[in-house]
Design goal:
The complex is a heterodimer of chains A (201) and B (497).
Chain A (H helix, E strand, L loop, with lengths): L15 E2 L2 E2 L15 E4 L10 H6 L9 H10 L3 H5 L21 H17 L5 E5 L7 H14 L4 E5 L3 H7 L2 H10 L2 H10 L6
Chain B lengths: L1 H5 L9 H12 L9 H23 L6 H41 L1 H9 L3 H53 L5 H52 L14 E10 L6 E11 L3 E6 L5 H9 L6 E6 L2 E2 L5 H5 L2 E4 L10 H6 L9 H10 L4 H5 L19 H12 L7 E5 L7 H22 L2 E5 L3 H4 L4 E6 L2 E6 L1 H7 L2 H10 L4
Parallel strand pairs in B: 3-8, 3-9, 6-7, 7-8
Antiparallel strand pairs in B: 1-2, 1-4, 4-5, 9-10
The chains are: A mainly alpha (201), B alpha/beta (497).
Chain lengths: 201, 497
Amino acid sequence: MKLLCRFYDPDEGRISVDGADLASLRPDGADGWHRRVAAVFQDYVQFELSAYDNVAFGALERRGDERAVAEAVALAGADRVVGRLAEGWSTPLSRQFSSGTQLSGGEWQRLALARALFAVRAGGAGVLILDEPTAGLDVRGEAEVYERFLEVTRGTTTIVISHRFSTVRRVVEAGTHAELLAAGRVYATMYRLQAERFGTA
Amino acid sequence: MDLVAAVPGVAHHELSEYSDRMELIRTERTYLANPFNPISWTLASVVSTVTVIVLLGSVRPVLALLPLVGLPAAVANGRADVSLENLLDAQAEDNRRLRHLLELATEPPAAKEVRLLGLGREIVERHGALFAQLERARVRLATRNTAGVVAAWMVFGAGYAGAVLWSMHLARTGAISAGSVLLVLSLGAQMNMQLAELGWNVAWLIRTYRAVGRLVWLSDFAAEAKANADPPARRPVPAVLRQGIAFDSVSFAYPGTDRPVLHRVDLSLPQGATVAVVGENGAGKTTLAKLLVRLYEPTSGRISVDGTDLRSFDIEEWRARISAGFQDFARFELVARESIGVGFVPDMASSAKVGAALARGAAEDLVEVLPDGLATQLGREFDGTELSIGQWQKIALGRAMMRESPLVLLLDEPTASLDAPTEHQLFERFAGAARQVADAHGGVTILVSHRFSTVCMADLIVVLDGGAIQELGSHDQLMARGGRYAELYRLQASGYC
């Protein structure tokens, strides 16, 4: 994933984007590759700034667009989080600051998802990387993310890294899932291991 | 640092009032090094000022009033210092903001996302703007103060010049000697310095007094927290659990908020049981666990262990009987053996015990990937091996497993970052560890999890919703009931086809 984000260049081989070598694209700047990639990393950043900044940072150049920010928040299911904040959008997210509020892990994760969504919808990112994006979410939250979130980002190349096979199953096209099961190698073993705990394999 | 760590809970870390005072104590600890210095220095300046006054009075009594014209300067100096102090007080919160922005710009954990989002310049700009704003306020104050001090010195200068001219006039008429003129000349100049010194020393005294005041506030805070935490009727922690742990109408709201996170929870955890706590985000699962560890105290109601109020145990003694692995586990960037061993310091030096703890946490394979095994330095900070999040979680699990005979084994989302085979292995070991806890001391195992594949193995499942217990029972009972648990279970299982 770090290679895809162009934090590093590969020692050998090449990654191409629509046929162009990734290494030949500028990483930063207004038209750089970084703007084309949105990510929710496993150790996503918790900005101890306002709730608004936490989402608007997904696409800085569109940060004034309050409606787009609100949309991204609603789509990520983070509107409930913002709804209970004492000073709404402008509430600082840390109890270290007066009138600030501390969020739980799951609530932070929803804001991180909203930020990535804002990057995709407002910032025009074409690649979305989700690294264990639901580790802190409850069952309903997980199901929501994959049923709603991925629907919204259709047309965006989405890469999900997950240990939860229920997740992978939701993301990958059904045929591919079946192909992998039929191949009967690592994927099938790991999948069965998890599924049999539910007595359904 | 002792005082911070001495407050038994963690609630204080989340109060901004507390943070402000800590910030100031941190930046002003030099004033606390020797609080008696400013007192003796102030006394010394008072004595030398009085000497000057007496000497001037001996020339002509009215000259003894000369220090009066110097008084505004002393006051202006002292006031300038105190007002600067007040300003720094007011800026403490913004200084914490500056530090967070600096961390975002410079610390490795944030670097990936900050680069990807192209936030570098934005963060630097915000830091710069906030810094400039604070700096402007300081400069504005300094300018105003300087103007006041200069004006006050001009008053003194005029008085001094007047006194010298007058004494020269007296000398010319022969009323006083030429030596007396020299005396006025030199004493006046000396007084200039002495008054400035007096001003500084008084300001120093005020600063020290305030710094001591903050320290006293902090130790009162620590003492009060300790007194609340330890009511007088002290009872020993039982060696073996005979009945279990009971929550009696327990409610809790985080400090500084009114929103109850738990609302009148009644719950009985029988000795030797494996209990799973499930519920949606914000249902109060982690809070329940934190109350049990006494990181916080219930706002109302009580928790009892074999009928004894949890608050009558010595908090250290109680915590010594708990093994806990939390969701937001700490990353101790030490040598691997120590990072795990801190779970039970007396056994930290024993590689065998640390190895056994790793095995109980299904994390023994971790040692194989570390270049120097248990002796590997962890973390980038000290040029060590950087671990993935899943590997850090294994370290944390090993840490949780260090104690061999806990009364409570608490596992809060212990597998969120682990892969399938490890998860599978871990569940079986957990069950083993739970049995061991139960057999040895009647201990209770509490598992907070979103993964229903583990949850269904528990003897007792607690379903929390909005801070209250919604359902309670075994997996079979709750599935038969067809309520919330059954619904959530099916929702997750439906991901497996």
